[in-house]
Design brief:
The protein is an alpha+beta fold and 141 residues long. Helix content is 19%, strand content 38%. It has two domains: 2-34, no CATH class; 40-133. A hairpin with an 8-residue loop joins β4 and β5.
């Protein structure tokens, strides 16, 4: 076990894979695991007082998102919701979609966002939904 750990440290440190190590099942297993997306549907809000309370795949190319605003301001803030569907299969392109909500959207709210891509949301490994303040350059292209 110490040999595997020290060899992995060597790989990380100098970026090479000795031929004897490249064929090691332990290392292959570790490398494959690091490149695998765990199945899941996740929603996160980077907007103060806005929460994603639910994310559901509605159809092959549609996702439903439940949002709530619980701030003290009279109106809800403008936000952008971005959806990504990712797969472990390298030949499968990511699925993407987004929607902008103007200031004053009604809370609670259920959004349906369509995604593009040649596959189905039911076939991807990871679906992420991110709410960001409208005007933020962190997610806009």
């Amino acid at each position: 076990m110490i040999s595997v750990v020290s060899t992995l440290a060597l790989i990380l440190l100098i970026g090479i894979v000795p031929s004897s190590l490249a064929q090691s099942q332990d290392v292959d297993s570790l490398l494959n695991k690091a490149q695998t997306l765990e199945r899941g549907i996740y929603g996160i809000s980077n907007v103060p007082n806005v929460k994603i309370t639910g994310v559901t795949i509605s159809s092959d190319k549609t996702i439903s998102i439940n949002l709530i605003y619980n701030g003290t301001e009279a109106t809800s803030p403008p936000i952008i919701i971005v959806v990504n569907g990712l797969s472990n299969r390298t030949e499968q392109a990511p699925m993407e979609g987004s929607q902008v909500l103007s200031e004053g959207w009604i809370s609670p709210s259920i959004l349906s966002i369509s995604v593009n891509g040649s596959s189905s949301l039911y076939d991807v490994n990871l679906v992420s939904v991110v709410a960001t303040p409208s005007g933020s350059t962190a997610i806009q292209k």
